[in-house]
Amino acid sequence: MVNHRDHDIEKNTHLQVDDIPSSEQDVKTSGRGGRDYSGAVAKFDPKEIALVRKLDWRIMPTLFAMYFLNKLDQNAIANARLNDLEDDLGLVGTQYNTCISILYVGYLFAQIPSNMLMSSKKVRPSLYMGLCMIAWATVATLTALVKDYAGLVVVRFFLGIVEAPFYPGALYLLSLFYTRKEIATRVSILYAGNIFAVSFAGLIAAATFKTLDDKHNMHGWQWLFIIEGVVTLAVATVAIFLLPDMPLNTRWLTEEERQLAHERIQRDTVGLEPSKGARAGFMQAVKDPRLYLLMFMQNMHLSATSFNQFFPTVVSSLGFNTIITLVLTCPPSLVAGVVGIFIGISSGRFNERTWHITIMMGIALAGFIISAITLNTAARYVSCFLFASGVYAVNSVILGWVSATLGQTTEKKAVSLSIINVASMASFIYTPYLYPKSDGPKYVIAMSSNACFAFMTIVSAWVLRIWLQWRNRRLRMENEAGGVFYAY
Hints:
By secondary structure, the chain is mainly α. It has a single domain, classed as Growth Hormone, Chain: A (Up-down Bundle), CATH 1.20.1250.20. The chain is 70% helix and 0% strand. It has 21 helices and no strands. α2 runs parallel beside α8, α5 packs antiparallel against α6 and α12 packs parallel to α19. The longest helix is centred in the first third of the chain and has 35 residues. The chain is globular, with a radius of gyration of 22 Å. It is found in: Membrane. GO terms for molecular function: transmembrane transporter activity. Its main location: membrane. This is MFS general substrate transporter. Keywords: Membrane, Transmembrane, Transmembrane helix, Transport.
């Protein structure tokens, strides 16, 4: 069942933010070797603290930069729309919306087999993810060459296929190296790459359009795809040497660090089981009913983030010109990124998920309602801060919950993360059609739908909390001496 180990507590050791006792409840339950209600243990060993710091300095900046460029390349089309992309390519009706949604069809095909391949240990994750990044950089750059609707659809479809391995792969890598109390913070930093990409995409586009539009016989939107694609290609080359592989074979860790990295995840896993291969991990995942509740929760959450692909369009409904609109997209996303990191730290410190999701999605719900019911410019701009901060903040909490709940084997964890990511990304196939131009400036259909999505995210979080509390009671009956239990 679960391996139990005593943990030597070293005094006078500098602790990290995710090591601070979260509450009086944690202190009271520390009679079981410093464990909290779920059996999670704070770090006190100087070697473990040094290891996590080393991992942070190598892994987190690399994954952040990769995700920043992933979303920058993916969402460049949203800013290109403001530079007459539709007119230049002759897009009419819902053709632009189709170009948005087709990318996620490519995502659906590639994510699950990609994570199964990574967990099979047949490829080096560092090399595999770096090569995938080179591939998407190439496809993103080629978007500048499309001449019509058909060309754009084809490029977007293949961009989805080559970008698909990154995000579930990054989540899987984080789950291999970080414990339940640590992972929410790291996922929030990773996801901040997405949020900051939305923030700076408008500024980058504004500068590109202002300086390069119609230069050398190319439109500003073409230069945007070229510049962002070339930068992505350069970062991909460096990432190959910075990313880790598995805990036991990462090249830039010492033998002692590799063993410690492996053992600390083993002792933090609920219901640890021996690995039986990628196919067995797939079957373990699909047979676990909790997978489907988490899948629904994340689908509802990402459905509520559908404004991401249309953020410049939503902000343009405030009535400003193109350059000011692009600049105004920056502050709400920057604030959302900072809030997201804070929520990730808080969730990890308190080892709590449900209330964090409830409060932040409640804030988002209020923002969506305000945006749908008023045309007041100030109120609508404030609503952008509310729904962006509320929705983006809970991503790390939900995905940390997935790896902590469905991580009995590394293969099951990898497949679960990819399945849930696929199911949630499926929302981006249909949500673009909630934003027809004819529904502006309020976009009542989209905003009211987003409010419903936020509410259902909250409901599903509470259902899972009750479910895990029931499961923990069963585990305690089977093991009265205490052990590792599900966090909620």
